[in-house]
């Protein structure tokens, strides 16, 4: 059975995003990007919420069209476009680039998705991750700690210190 693998970047003080959904503090150098490419490439699909999907969809479909784009960026653009995706959203009408839109996180539907053939499923996005954690649907955590202290925002583990 496939696993749901939560992959999130956090600050030293446990925040996944700063105020106003700020993620500009993420420190993704070439080494980390290559690691993420190698990891995501093995997944059977990506699960995300609306904000994460829209951020990704705004950049990755054409990221490799830039002749100055680093090799890791070019590579990930292709990985992202081809990867099956599920976006959990009540407002996104239609998904593009191999994306299915699902309105709610329903445990039985997630378990059925896990039973399908293929690689593990990568989960990202603060709100949808919180819902998957609340429902006990996360099988593995891969937390990428960035050397920055935010002091406020949205925590990966609510109520944490």
Shape: globular
SS elements, strand count: 8
As a whole number of angstroms, the C-alpha radius of gyration is 15 Å
Number of helices: 5
The residue fraction in helices comes out at 25-40%
Look at the structure and give the mean pLDDT.
93
What structural class do helix, strand and pairing data support? Answer: alpha/beta
What percent strand? Answer: 15-25%
Explain this structure.
About 30% of the residues lie in helices and about 25% in strands. By secondary structure, the protein is α/β, with parallel strands linked by helices.
Features:
single chain, 161 residues, alpha/beta, two-stranded antiparallel sheet, 5 helices
Q: Brief description of this entry?
A:
This protein has 161 residues and is α/β, with parallel strands linked by helices.
Write the layout of secondary structure elements.
Blueprint (H helix, E strand, L loop, with lengths): L3 E8 L3 E3 L12 H12 L3 E5 H10 L11 H12 L2 E4 L10 E4 L4 H9 L5 E4 L1 H9 L5 E7 L7 E2 L6
Parallel strand pairs: 1-6, 1-7, 3-4, 3-6, 4-5
Antiparallel strand pairs: 2-8
Helix pairs in contact: 1-3
């Amino acid at each position: 059975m496939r696993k749901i693998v939560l992959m999130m970047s956090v600050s030293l003080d446990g925040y996944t995003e700063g105020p106003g959904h700020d993620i500009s503090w993420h420190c993704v150098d070439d080494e980390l990007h290559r690691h993420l490419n190698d990891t995501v490439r093995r997944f059977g699909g990506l699960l995300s919420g609306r904000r994460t999907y829209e951020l990704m969809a705004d950049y990755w479909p054409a990221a490799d069209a830039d002749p100055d784009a680093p090799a890791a960026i070019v590579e990930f653009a292709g990985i992202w476009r081809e990867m099956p995706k599920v976006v959990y959203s009540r407002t996104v009408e239609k998904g593009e680039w191999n994306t299915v839109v699902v309105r709610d996180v329903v445990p039985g539907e997630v378990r059925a998705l896990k039973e399908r053939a293929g690689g593990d499923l990568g989960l990202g996005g603060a709100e949808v991750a919180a819902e998957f954690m609340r429902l006990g649907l996360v099988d593995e955590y891969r937390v990428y700690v960035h050397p920055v202290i935010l002091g406020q925002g949205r925590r990966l583990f609510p109520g944490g210190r």
